[in-house]
Design goal:
385 residues; 16 strands; eight-stranded mixed β-sheet; Aminopeptidase; 2 domains; alpha+beta; 31% strand; binds coenzyme A; single chain
Length: 385
């Protein structure tokens, strides 16, 4: 194909993909100064003007000419706003790469551009499959891929190569008959405040207090699976893992925070939300930082989490019909938290809760039905309190 004459212009109501021009060199160079660009892509660092000139005036035209790669400039709001490219791999498989300028982010521009390019790949280029890859932790990119219908995500350890360094990579794909729409739930993690506590998403700022809480003797006793000693790295892994729960549809995990200082007081989760047999059930789990115990923080947090879990899906909740909760039999504080929130003891599983010393405690099972919640009718009718 001849560049730029044969480059197809693809457009929806807001975003246009078109051939790059020399006028894009300046804005493309600027975009590549962004630390996020350097962190998540393979562009040279430091990124010089000559890199932008070479990419736009040599590499991109050559890719169109020999059919190895098709790169479009993204135009949004009348300006160059980034680049999306499709590399033609063998066997009808293409690979998509993309970046958007910082000023244009968060407006759905990238999702629209990806959909336009993927549609073109299937309808005009005859590709069967398009693959997306991103370094693990690039949540913005993962979200774009999810919104554009990429699926069957896997993590491949050390699959990526960035400036000579191996990095773990997420890989997902979409095939020509797939709908370019999200597959599976990506649970929002709303900020919920009430009863003297705030539930909010966990973040890297919580790592120190997560580490302190999980090194505490009582936490370690009842959560025997935790690493010991529990390092700052463990805390960061925990936090990222809980963010991934939401993206995978598995669960919603909040930091319980002090409403005044926003400091982490504990962790509460509603999880196992993808139950194969019954996807209307969820489990509630929690731990508190030692300095937050004994003042009703966890009872308050469970109250908020339960309410969110029973709120219908259409109203932004988790749409649960039934919640379960487990506490080791000697863990009276945990059983108390369950019972003040209306959970009903349903049984005792014998020798089911492992201790660190190799012994086992009995495990009390609790459950709570949405119909038993005092605000059940209000939740259904979406009447604010
Ligand atoms: C990743 C990138 C392309 C996203 O561009 P964008 O224009 O913001 O994309 P969109 O607006 O279409 O969608 C982004 C979505 O991700 C969400 N998002 C962004 N950062 C996020 C984060 N750290 N965690 C969770 N979600 C995040 C946005 O809220 C938005 O979701 P929403 O539409 O539901 O609100 C852009 O940040 C970028 O260019 N980054 C640097 C280069 C890069 O990483 N390229 C991809 C390499 S694989």
């Amino acid at each position: 194909m001849r560049f730029p004459d044969d480059v197809p212009v693809l457009t929806d109501s807001l975003v246009t993909l078109r051939a790059h021009t020399t006028a894009d060199i300046g804005p493309a160079y600027e975009t590549c100064q962004d630390p996020e660009m350097q962190r998540w892509t393979t562009i040279p660092v430091p990124y010089l003007q000559e890199h932008a000139v070479g990419y736009l005036t040599e590499q991109i035209p050559a890719g169109w000419a020999d059919g190895s790669s098709y790169a479009w400039a993204i135009e949004y709001d009348g300006r160059y706003a980034g680049t999306v490219d499709l590399r033609d791999r063998e066997g009808g498989v293409g690979e998509i790469g993309f970046a958007v300028s910082p000023w244009a982010r968060g407006n759905g521009v990238m999702t629209r551009a990806v959909k336009l390019a993927v549609r073109h790949a299937f309808d005009q280029l005859g590709l069967q499959r398009v693959i997306w890859r991103a370094y693990v932790g690039n949540w913005g990119s993962r979200r774009v891929a999810w919104k554009a219908g990429f699926r069957s995500l896997v993590t491949l350890p050390q699959e990526g190569l960035q400036r000579g360094v191996r990095r773990d990579e997420w890989v997902a794909s979409v095939t020509r008959d797939d709908e370019l729409e999200p597959q599976g739930r990506w649970w929002p993690i709303p900020v919920v405040e009430g009863n003297g506590v705030r539930l909010r998403p966990l973040g890297p700022q919580d790592a120190e207090r997560v580490m302190a809480a999980c090194n505490d003797e009582r936490t370690a006793t009842w959560l025997a699976g935790l690493p010991s000693p529990y390092t700052l790295e463990d805390a960061h892994t925990f936090i990222e893992g809980r963010i991934a729960w939401a993206a995978d549809g598995d669960g919603v995990s909040w930091a319980i925070a002090d409403p005044e200082t926003d400091e982490l007081l504990g962790n509460i989760s509603a999880f196992d939300l993808r139950g194969r047999i019954d996807p209307t059930v969820g489990e509630i789990g929690y731990w508190a930082h030692p300095d937050a115990r004994g003042r009703g923080v966890m009872s308050a947090a469970v109250g908020l989490a339960v309410r969110h879990a029973f709120t219908p899906l259409d109203d932004g909740g988790l749409g649960r019909r039934r919640l379960v909760l487990y506490a080791a039999a000697p863990n009276a504080a945990s059983a108390h938290v369950a019972e003040v929130n209306g959970f009903v003891r349903t049984g005792l599983q014998r020798a089911a809760s492992p201790r660190r010393d190799g012994s086992y405690d009995d495990l009390i099972s609790f459950d709570l039905l949405a119909t038993e919640h005092p605000d059940y009718r209000k939740l259904l009718e979406n009447v604010a309190e």
